[in-house]
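Structure, all two chains, one model.
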Amino acid sequence: MAPHLHAESLSLSFGSGAERTAALNGVSVSFRPGTVTLMMGPSGSGKTTLLTVLGCLQSPDQGRVHLMGRDASTLSEDERARLRQKHVGYVYQAFRLFRALTALENVMMGLEVCGVTGAAARDRARTALDRVGLQGKAALKPRELSGGEKQRVAIARATINAPDVILADEPTASLDHESGLQIAGMLRGLAGDGATVVLVSHDSRLLTLVDRIVVLQDGRLIEDRTP
Amino acid sequence: MPHVSIPRVRLAWANLLHDRARLVTTLVGITFSVFLMLYQGSLLLGFVRAASAVIDATTADLWIMGRDVTCFDFPAPLPERFGHIARGIPGVGAVRRTVTGITQWHRPDGVRQTVLVIGADEGVGERFPLPRLNGATLLPDALVVDRSNARLLGVRSIPTDGELGDRRARIVEFTEGFGSFLATPYVFTTHRDTIRYSNLPDEYTSYILVWVQSGHDVERVRQDLRARLPEADVLTGRQFAQRSRLFWVIGTGAGGALFIAGMLGFIIGVVIVSQSMYATTMENLDEFATLKAMGASRRFVLTIVLVQAAVLAVVGCAFGIALALPSVSLTERFFIPWIFTPPWYTPFVVAASLAMCALASVVSIRKALSAEPARVFRA
């Protein structure tokens, strides 16, 4: 099966003049559906930057990203937004839930940006929350949830549109041992449903759940192996 | 939290409610701003209306007056022959007179009050207050005063006897809509009695009013009168009303002061709302970035900010109007009789408030739309 996500010779620098640093330096990598890939590397190696470029959240200085067969560099900002809407789900270390909305409404927002509203959105959101084991917590706001519960709401929101690609940045970093294992298991399950899952993490608990490890250093891909 | 069907409205509303102290502060600011716009605007509009109230009460097509007369309250004497000349102009139908004079009213309690006596011939206009018996025959030695001046003139009931210019006079009727913004209240009577009470020469008048016969062009008749009366100004009723308003509003600076106060209300509202909305947007910048990462369109993000602005505008407006309208009524009743809120003005203020909040949200909109979706990956 063709890769959902493919990057060619990505380069991206920040800053200017003498302070200009290369966050990515000629990175090429592909990700196949149904797999979980763990990106590792020291702090500042470019892992998160690569994740944002793969997810079409920012454009590289050089190189291309192909997402679901479409070259993101040829798309306008609105077209990239629609591509993300349809094909990509994000899971963040800091959860990024809307603090003023309930768990149910947070998940519904994942549908509402796509134009699905009302009772249809509500029903689908409830099902998504049930799937992550939060059926009794729909009416609670983020401040009333534990770290693990917040991350499960975030995963429910990220997967509500059945995206083809899941990008997760340190999804278990803020969680205790048990919650972290649960989240890791959920992400593994998403790959089992055919999604392409790419994680950035230092969490060794994830090593047993991934299909592939890529290692970055100084913006370059230095290792690509199975665990 | 209210359940509303429009999704982004829910997030906008929820973000506003999240910091209730800021919400209350902002609403207080908008309420004050709306109050100021409505109240000052009512003062200005009432001032403008009062400046030409007497002119607007007549039905004359043309007014003949002394050269460069600035407003109704400050006429120059006109010789009676001007009226005779006017009658000889083709197209001139009726010719009538209006006169003003300053004198003193002796109140029943003995206090003297300077008044502007305004008199007119019968037929100048149904709305022109003239003292009549049973609404028909003109009454001699009789006066009509505006109800708002009753206390100033010592009038507790109708009729009230007193002296005007050391002659016996009787106030027989109240009128409304002729409250003067000068210190001298208006007193209405016939042309003949005004001459008597003000000790003016018999052949004196202030204005000659002309009605143009049907089938004749008003402007043509006006030009003909101007040619025959080079020592006078000849204006249509509308032109004279406009001249009077411009004199009081712009010539004296009073209207400008009221207008500036009203504009200050608008500016204060923009400043308060923009600060509050900017603070709210900055506080929620990560949320906007998250929405953009999720694929929300620019329009989606824009709508959230505009809905916040609209909610603030509507709620603040409601409070502001609820405070301002009763205040205007109280002011009219006890302090400033000529203050006036025309029916169109309140909707205008609502529209201005919406515009104010939309304008105030521009900086916030730019900030929200420029939120980098990539920032959501930074812890």
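Residues 295 and 336 of chain B are 58 Å apart (CA to CA).
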